[in-house]
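Subject: Re: docking follow-up (zinc ion)

Dear J.,

Thanks for your patience while I sorted out the input files. As discussed at Tuesday's group meeting, I've set up the holo structure prediction with zinc ion included as the bound ligand rather than trying to dock it afterwards. The sequence and the ligand SMILES I used are pasted below, so you can double-check that they match what you have on your end before we go further.
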Amino acid sequence: MRSQIVAAAAALVLGVAAPAAREAVDRPPVAPTAAKVAPGLVALPCVGDSPITPVAPVYCRRDRHYVTERAKASLEAAAATVAKRFPGAQVQYMDASWPAGRRPMPPHRSHGDGRQIDITLFYVDRDGRPLQRPPTRNGYEAYEPPRFERERVCVGQRAPHNDGKDPPQDRAWRLDEARTRELVRTLAADPRVRRVFLEPHLKTRLGFGSNPKVRFAGCAAARHDDHIHVDFY
Ligand SMILES: [Zn+2]
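The structure tokens for the complex came back this morning:
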């Protein structure tokens, strides 16, 4: 779940506010972290060729890639399941937790203790060909909008949920339903996973209407049709 100041704060935290800062998203780490790691937390892979990988180097460079050992095992199992069915598919993450293990980790209302992570959706181009990575540099804000207005939530509210705007209709990408469904299905079936946040219209569209673990995060949270948030036990 992301905070009430999601757009501005995320821009600051992730370095996407200005062209100069935007370059920093892709700059590789220059040195291993010297951060003190809280007991029970481990780093997720930072290299590009593993089944689970950061969307951009910034998440490792800023030490936002720590999770509990249990969460790491669950994510690796999910990534292996998705890659088995869809060869070449990588589970790509954005913010997880920092090594200190303290909640919350701004701009999020949660994150920080290793039991939360944001994962990008999968996308295809307009001809249905799988994209290797999300169409935004930091992985956030490539929203897959509701197909019908009646599916839209938080309508008319001054809520953080409404900070995220639909992309243009002529955008070059669309949601990859098959790979995204497989990822959500795998995570929700894992007893190590407590819940998965997804927008209501995607929950219905991907066939999770009766799955109690797949939930709406509420109007006080950011939209979850550009990424999914996973909470682990
Ligand atoms: Zn989150």
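A couple of observations from a first look. The longest strand covers residues 227-232. DSSP finds six helices and ten strands in the chain.

Let me know if you'd like me to rerun anything.

Best regards,
T.
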